[in-house]
């Protein structure tokens, strides 16, 4: 499984620019934290799997790889970045969020009676998406860094295909603002890469001004007015939940990412009582 390695964007560009002509330590001399963090990640992988195993995975020359991991000689920038990419390390620029969905593998998987005698589906057709909490109509209680559970998702489903930055939230037990479309207890899948409510009426996970962590599911409409953008959050159950309108520049520091967490692309609903 890959990992997360944070990079300074400037240092990364310097590393690629210098290529094989200079060592990584030279290329990123103004940002040694980047190289140290990346090398620490590589060493930890070697400790977990053995140096020989990791060396074979990246196709490195033994002397070059062992000297690099041992700290006696820095690798070239091209070699080092190639190793990280081959091992599945993710490059995260300052201000970016790492992808939080995970690949899965089947371990003693239990099969329901309908699947008895059938082969297990390929694990690569699924991934695990973190469910981070509840989303309601009032102040949100959805800390993105506190994973409550995981949801297994079929990656080839049309609405999910090619999406990779997903999280799941549960509609809070007292939230009825999106009834009858979404009800308390429903689980909603959110694409954090899609934050552009260009067409009025799209369903998004959104935040009220000043809200930290928490969020709510609403339909969203926008309107450009006098150099600003008006953002309206409105509910399916509009009779009991009037719409709220905010100014992007005044209420969200002109940053759409502070208003919109992501587009809702899929939902699971309990229909036993319907």
Radius of gyration: 23 Å
Shape: flat
Number of strands: 12
Helix content: 10-25%
The helix count comes to 7
CATH class of the largest domain equals Mainly Beta
Q: In what range is the share of β-strand residues?
A: 25-35%
Euclidean distance between termini CA atoms: 41 Å
Main beta sheet strand tally, sense and closure = 10 strands, mixed
Low-confidence stretches: 1-32, 137-143
What is the oligomeric state here? Answer: single chain
Question: What would CATH call the homologous superfamily of the largest domain?
Answer: Umud Fragment, subunit A
Counted up, domains total: 2
3D structure, described in words:
Pfam families: Peptidase_S24 (PF00717). With 274 residues, the chain is an alpha+beta fold. It has two domains: 4-92, no CATH class; 102-268, Umud Fragment, subunit A (Ribbon), CATH 2.10.109. 23% of the residues lie in helices and 26% in strands. It has helices at residues 9-18, 24-27, 32-49, 51-58, 62-70, 77-86, 248-251; strands spanning 4-6, 90-92, 102-103, 126-135, 149-154, 166-171, 187-191, 202-206, 216-225, 228-234, 244-247, 260-268. Strands 3, 4, 5, 6, 7, 8, 9, 10, 11 and 12 form a ten-stranded mixed beta sheet that branches. Helix 3 packs across helix 4 (51-58). The model is unreliable at 1-32 and 137-143 (pLDDT under 50).
Short description:
23% of the residues lie in helices and 26% in strands. It has 274 residues and is an alpha+beta fold.
How do the strands and helices of this protein lay out in sequence?
Elements: E1 4-6, H1 9-18, H2 24-27, H3 32-49, H4 51-58, H5 62-70, H6 77-86, E2 90-92, E3 102-103, E4 126-135, E5 149-154, E6 166-171, E7 187-191, E8 202-206, E9 216-225, E10 228-234, E11 244-247, H7 248-251, E12 260-268
Parallel strand pairs: 1-2, 4-6
Antiparallel strand pairs: 3-4, 4-5, 6-7, 7-12, 8-9, 8-12, 9-10, 10-11
């Amino acid at each position: 499984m890959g990992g997360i390695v944070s990079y300074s964007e400037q240092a990364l560009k310097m590393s690629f620019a210098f290529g094989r002509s200079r060592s990584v330590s030279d290329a990123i001399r103004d940002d040694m934290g980047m190289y140290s963090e990346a090398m620490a990640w590589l060493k930890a992988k070697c400790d977990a799997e053995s140096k020989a195993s990791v060396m074979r995975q990246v196709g490195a020359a033994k002397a070059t790889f062992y000297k690099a991991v041992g700290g006696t000689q820095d690798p070239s920038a091209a070699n080092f970045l190639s190793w990280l990419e081959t091992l599945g390390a993710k490059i995260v620029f300052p201000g970016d969020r790492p992808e939080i969905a995970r690949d899965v593998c089947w371990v003693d998987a239990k099969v329901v009676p309908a699947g008895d005698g059938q082969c297990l589906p390929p694990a690569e057709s699924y991934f695990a998406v973190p469910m981070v909490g509840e989303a309601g109509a009032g102040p949100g209680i959805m800390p993105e860094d506190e994973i409550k559970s995981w949801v297994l998702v079929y990656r080839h489903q049309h609405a999910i295909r090619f999406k990779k930055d997903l999280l799941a939230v549960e509609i809070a037990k007292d939230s009825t603002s999106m009834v009858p479309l979404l009800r308390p207890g429903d689980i909603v899948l959110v694409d954090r890469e899609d934050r552009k409510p260009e067409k009025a009426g799209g369903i998004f996970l959104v935040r009220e001004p000043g809200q930290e962590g928490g969020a709510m599911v609403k339909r969203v409409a926008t309107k450009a007015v006098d150099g600003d953008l008006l953002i309206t959050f409105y509910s399916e159950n509009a009779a009991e939940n009037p719409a709220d309108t905010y100014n992007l520049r005044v209420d969200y520091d002109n940053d759409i990412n502070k208003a919109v967490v992501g587009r809702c692309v899929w939902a699971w609903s309990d229909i036993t009582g319907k």
